[in-house]
Structure formats: C-alpha cells, structure tokens
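REQUEST ID: PR-0412
SUBMITTED BY: lab tech R.K.
PRIORITY: routine
TASK: structure prediction, single protein chain
INPUT:
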Amino acid sequence: MAEGKIRDTNHIVEAKSLLFLQSVLPIEWVQRKMEPDYGIDIDLELFEHEDGVCVTLGEHVFFQVKGTEYPEFATIKPIGEQLYTKKELEEKKLPVLKFVVDVPLLKLVERMGSAIPVLLVVVDIKEQVAYYACLNDYVHNVLLYRANDYREQDSITIYIPKENVLKPDVVSWYGKRAKLYGLFQELLTLSDNVQYLNANHKVGVMKRHLEKIVKSDAWSVCKRWMALEELRKQLEDMLKSDMVNEAGKRMLDRLVEKGEDPSSKVVQYGSEPTQISALLASQAISCDTFLDQAKAVGAIFENHIRHMGLPTQVNWMISH
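STATUS: complete
OUTPUT:
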C-alpha cells in the first residue's frame, strides 16, 4: 500500500496539458494562471516584436484547458439549418472530437458575450495534440440548433472538428476579436451619425474619422480575410484620392467622357435642397458606398466568420 498522500491522476493529466500548451504557444506570450479557477484557466496576453523589443498588443484570449489520455472521436453530420437535402447530408461526414463540458462553464461564456474569446483546449496527452473550440461561437451557433435547452442540464457533449489543431496563428486570429468588434461598431456608429448630414458636412466628418480608423490594429488580420482586406484597400484609396472611391470615380469618368468639368458641373445628390458640384457629389457617393460595404463586412463576420472552427453547415460551406 502506498504511504503518504496520493496525487490524483486527473491533476497529473491537467499538469501535463498545461505544460504542453506552453510548448505550443510562443514564449513571448504571457500565460497567467487564474487561481482560484471559476471556469477560466488561463488569461493569455499576446505580444509581438516591434523595433527590436517585445511589445504587448493589448490582446487577450481566455482558455479552459482540459487533458485526456483517451480521446473519443466520432463522425457527425454538419449541424445547423437545413442547407442541404437529407441525401447530401448523408454524404457529408465531419470527423470530430467528442468532449463533455460542464454547463456552468457555457453559461459563464454566454454571460461574457462575444468580444473576448474563450477557447476550450483539449489536449490529447498521448498523441501530443491540442484541439480547440471557441465556446462563445459554439454557444451562439451550435447549441442554438442542437441543444437549445442545454441550460437545464449539468453537462453536455460538444463536438470539436478534428482539423481544429491549436496553433499560434489561430490564437492570433481570436486575439483580434475585440478589436474587430470595436472597428465594426465604430463604422456602424459613423454611418448613423452622417446619414442626415449634407454632402459637404458628411465628407468632412467622414474624412476625420477615417483618418483615425485606418490606423486601427484590427486591420492586421486582413491577410486572413479577403473581405476585410478589400475594405481596407478601399479606405486607403479614398484617403489618397480626395475621398473618391471606385463608385465616385465612375461618376466622374462619365462626365469627363462627355467633356464636362466635374468641379464646375452641378448635379442633384440625394435630398439636398440645391444642386452641388459633381466632385462633391462623387465624394458623398463614395462615402455612402464605403459605409454600406463596411456594414456588409460586419454582417459577414457575425453570420459567417463566427462559424469558423465549428461543426456547422455554414463552416462546411466556407471550408469546402
């Protein structure tokens, strides 16, 4: 018989999983262990080298880390609204890791909202692989369809796509979540604030705000998301081209083809009481189309991008 206190096997597995997590993520990133633990194990703060020094990005990702020596894998149909016929669904098989989580953790994540991501990380101790799922998005986009009554249960099985292997670039993406929400909210508010301004005032207000917005750290994820990259390019082009983008330029090109001078030609814009110069109208039209595009990109993020990494039909379509 063993003499002395015995360390619980679960504690050993947990320690191994935390050590493995440290080996996966860059040493420059700071992992703060949350003690006592009320659902969040680690507050991860992201850093980056700039001008020869390691600087905090002001980005945080929360982790709930679990370890297992006997992971349970399965194959399921993608979850969600009926985007496919029954036959098509039968042909679409998604390899997943099944893992049981306590419902109080999911309730906590739901109360936290969407801006600060909470990643469930399940470490396969034997194979030395860490799988992840963004619980904020899982609650919002999976449990809504699969187990809307989950709040009445003590625990629930969640399904993590087997392709969700934790890597630094994945964590970097989620680290930008709060900044992306801030960017979209700022653009949405700007759209509301300028919608009733006259053309001259609108263009002036837009220019001041866009000169600040273009400096946002949120744009640094453009390389991972083409729609955001296109929006940034449109913004930069407007600031370089006297607040005229492609929509406004097409209007000016038509006038030039007719031999008209855009600076002296007067046209009607929206509900303006008097006609304004074609140049000013093209600037105002450019502002309108840019804000429409910004709102569309924000909607894409909420309705499509937040399905990334989830066992959903929407993610299946995005990935395939």
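NOTES: Residues 10 and 67 are 8 Å apart (CA to CA).
REVIEWED BY: pending
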